């Protein structure tokens, strides 16, 4: 999974690749080093992905910077054969010869694509705020109405506690090194295992599958700073 691959030096996406960090939907947080790699994505994109659980498909994974290269599926076997028969010093050259340049991928994006320049500007405007309340206010006032509507719909399904904790995770992770991020996540995981929302989220989405979790607290306004700080 992404927990193993995303920390590698070379990360190849194909048209069949799907990336998401949907943990806020089960009352958890972005683990597997999400504290490290998500805050380092461009233009608040990591915070957007962490909070909304939005999916990236195929070329989007490379455009976002989650993958380092995009290679069409039909070229993958040939790429593997060439890599296996070459020296480590040739890896970058080989990947470059098989991959599609990021600039070519971005130039072919639909204007409605999540990663279109228009929507990236909206993400940059909305997801750089230091509190969930301010992020929600920015989204509600966002000029890109359709994109804002999608964001609000996604966020409305998530655990309010997870949203506030994950936002703080992104803010802190930006200034931590790799080991410090994992140390923080270990502490966070232990705390989540003591709280209601993780068990309720797993029940609603993975066990009973009624998709109707009863979050407690039920609204972000009810999650105070003291509650959030317990996770850190």
TrEMBL record:
One of its GO terms (molecular function) is 3-hydroxyisobutyryl-CoA hydrolase activity. GO terms for cellular component: mitochondrion. Keywords: Hydrolase. It comes from the Eukaryota. Its EC number is 3.1.2.4. It is an enzyme of class 3 (hydrolase). One of its GO terms (biological process) is L-valine catabolic process. Residues 1-232 form the Enoyl-CoA hydratase/isomerase domain. It catalyses: 3-hydroxy-2-methylpropanoyl-CoA + H2O = 3-hydroxy-2-methylpropanoate + CoA + H(+). InterPro entries: ClpP/crotonase-like_dom_sf (IPR029045), ECH_dom (IPR045004), HIBYL-CoA-H (IPR032259). This is 3-hydroxyisobutyryl-CoA hydrolase.
